[in-house]
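Hi team,

As requested, here is the filled-out complex form for the succinic acid run. I kept the field names the same as last time so the parser does not choke. Let me know if anything looks off before we queue the next batch.

— J.
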Amino acid sequence: MKSINPSRRQILATGATVAGALAFPMVASAQAPIVIKFSHVVAEKTPKGQGALRFKELVEKKFPGRVQVQVFPSSQLFGDAKELEALLLGDVHIIAPSLSKFDRYNKKIQLFDLPFLFDDMAAVDRFQSSAAGKSLFEIGRGFRGLAYWHNGMKQMSSNRDKLTRPEDVKGLKFRIQASDVLEAQFRALGASPQKMAFSEVYQALQTGVVDGQENTWSNTYSQKYYEVQKTIGETNHGVLDYMVVTNAKWWDGLPADIRTGLSEAMAEATVYANKLAGDFSKEDRQKIVDAGKAKIQTLTKDDVAAWRKALDPVLQKFEGPIGRDLIQAAQKSNL
Ligand code: SIN
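And here is what came back:
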């Protein structure tokens, strides 16, 4: 066996140390950051759009060079029919679909689509912060709920001159999100519901494929529905909110410190997005008034009572799959 003289050994040892010292920073700098793809379907200037950007900002500040968040707004990456599947396949890591879009995966979340369940957004907020509300984060099927984000109460719009009474929508075609509760809601009103992806709604309204739709002030303004609808009835008949969700397996595989940091950033972005949602609802309603295109019609107490009566059978119909306890817990949040 060839002996290695001390000077050679020393050289080799020094060489190894130098190589190690050089290699480590190379490995560190070459190590790719964790890339988180956050996809959604609305415009950037909306509560969800801004919430996603705030989350990115907070995460990248917490983990410079270690985590990168890429936000894809306006259905750029996946439309709402596909984003839940894409999340399960690992093609995106975080999405924030409207609660209606969990219909295929979890029947209890249909709760949020029940008409006239919540009096206002404060009641929605109280329910979402309660133990019953948080229990819905356990969606199953590979999803993990991280937070609720608000958008706001829904209003109905149509291409007719009047929209204050349930009979004003009878016989009209309405675009709805892919939800059986929303389908039952419009059937109870004698209207014809059509499930359609969010990205297709403007054109469908413009070309008369559908006569009307229901949405929040923020979506009605940012998607320009008010330009292609004659009337918006201020019905406040339901809520359109979001659940921010991730792929449970991907999330559980993240380093623990990153998971903690992401949860903290999500909590902060949630407070921010939910405050913005209230501001957007007021401002976007006013912008629609100022644009002078669709006219906004408000409802009397008598009108609201007529809508509630017409839609009451929907609550009865879905009490079984959603669960009476959950419905009662939600109703209790109306003070
Ligand atoms: C959204 O706000 O994410 C879309 C809602 C809709 O499909 O109407």
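Two things worth flagging: The pocket of succinic acid is lined by residues 41-42, 80, 98, 151, 177, 198, 215, 219, 240 (CB under 6 Å). The chain has one domain: 8-331.

Thanks,
J.
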